[in-house]
Design a protein that fits this description.
Distance between the termini: 65 Å
Radius of gyration: 31 Å
Structural class: alpha+beta
CATH topology of one domain: Calcium-transporting ATPase, cytoplasmic domain N
CATH superfamily of one domain: Calcium-transporting ATPase, cytoplasmic domain N
Helix content: 25-40%
CATH architecture of one domain: 3-Layer(aba) Sandwich
Largest sheet: 11 strands, mixed
Strand content: 15-25%
Shape: elongated
Amino acid sequence: MRNELRRAMQNNSIEDRQEPWHALSVDDVCAKLGTDSAGLSAAAAAERHAAFGPNRLPQGPRRSALVRFLLQFHNLLIYVLLAAGMLAMFLGHAIDAGVIFAVVLVNAVIGFVQEGRAEQALDAIRGMIDPKASVLRDGRRLTVAADAIVPGDVVIVEAGARVPADLRLIRARNLRIDEAILTGESVAVDKTLAPTAAPAALGDRTSMAFSGTFVAAGQGAGIAVATGAKSELGLIGALLGTVETLQTPLIRQMDGFAKRLTLFTLGISAVAFAFAVLLRGYAFTDAFMVVVGLAVAAIPEGLPATMTIALAIGIQRMAARNAIIRRLPAVETLGSVSVICSDKTGTLTRNEMTVRAVVTAEAVFEVTGVGYEPHGEFRVEGRDVDAASESVLREIVRAALLCNDAELGLKDGTWQVDGDPMEGALLALAMKAALDPALVRKQLPRTDAIPFDAAHRFMATLHHSHDDGAFILVKGAPERIVEMCDRERTRAGPRAIDRDAWRRKADELAGRGQRVLSFALKPVAADQRTLAFADVDDGGVLLGRGAREDRRIADCGAEPILVEMLEVGPRQDARLVGEAELPGDLACRDGVVSGDHHGTDARRLADLHRIARFRPGWIHHRDESQKRHPGFGVLNRCRALAR
């Protein structure tokens, strides 16, 4: 076995073989990688590090400052201006030549400085990534540099950390991972140890933890099966490296303008020269000097500087929205997007969960607001209501706040969640109802808790008030919470639960494409200090439900944008995402392309003279053999003619 492993390492075949690690049992993974639950030995780790190299994403060669500065002159219009400046100098017009050269130099300096700032910002972001990771080696837990992880290492992950390599999980305790960086889905994924089907999509591989993803809750351990460029994140980077570099629309337009201007100027100059010499009898030298002066005067030397300043202003505006643009012309390309291609519903959303409705036994409260901002109103049938005057509503939002492990705060001018996005949305809901999280948690401290788990599909917390009262709060899947309850809360007090009515309400919310959570309460004895599963099996009072969603494609922008959904999930889900919040002429008209589609489709769109932007992930999920002509099947357009 050791000799086979050594040969595999020499050929780099441990990582290179396209094993469906998510479909293998833990024992099979250990056997293939020559490891076990105690981890590698220090000697084996060193040997593999020498064979596979550091666990880092490869970075392309960086342009030196001199190269970046010289590239600012790589523009056809700049070449024309430089030629005009030299001609002006040749004619003895030193002031004109100086003005032209100064404009070109200022233009280059502005572009150089702006791109330098972008590079510095990216370097700062890279420095924010935690360079450490916890591994088991020789059966002992060690903290090592993240780039020292090798295939076969047993890596320990905990809430608040980023996964340092692609891992096949061998332990998971209430482990939930935010994989939005890879899949675009805003909801954290519950992780399990059971193998998944070999053809499962990336977002469905629940037995895996992928490099770069964020651990939202729980803890676990996994065997590193791919590091560096071999990880899923590295594969996306490699695909981006193979993308053909094209000119931006603005650069193409400016090159075309420069060509037309040059040809027009040469043509006019030739006509003027012939007219002066042949018809007016000017001397050859005098006519040439006049024609050259005419050509220089026709060059718009202020245009490049104006264009560069406009792009720099655009970059500053994007930076204010936390978007870093490395090259000046790229900011204009974003404004030229006419088609967005995507394969998953989550990709079309903002990755910010928002509670849109709170449902009680007697009413449906609509909730306004954007993202995680704790500003919004509660409405019933179009009229505003005071949350403080609605006893059941207030109990629900209090439960959403207390049965919650996330934190919501204002950072750098935006409201950001530390923890599960869903729980962040619940905190925002409570704050809209004028509840102060810190104050409420102090008044009703948590004594014990049952963390959320995919197996039991709920989270429960035990709380004690300062007046010797105690109660359990439960949140979770609607059908699971209903099973625990025999009563429902109303304004007049608890009454027998109407399960059929709650089932109909759940179907209605699901039909809108909204994700639903239910909340329940159970009073307990004041001396109870621990919480067990048996404590929540029955006797609960159903408070109500919260319906949450991610913002939709209505925010595509102010320009006409055609959205094509290359959907690999349920067609109904995709239609709901397209239809939600698109009033009038924004309504989605079956904007779904079903089946396996590839970058070919996006390239065909680009051939139609549209500028297309699409996530690299939806290409990289499928192998090269599928890059055949797939046929478009049913292609119904979802037009987002925003504002």
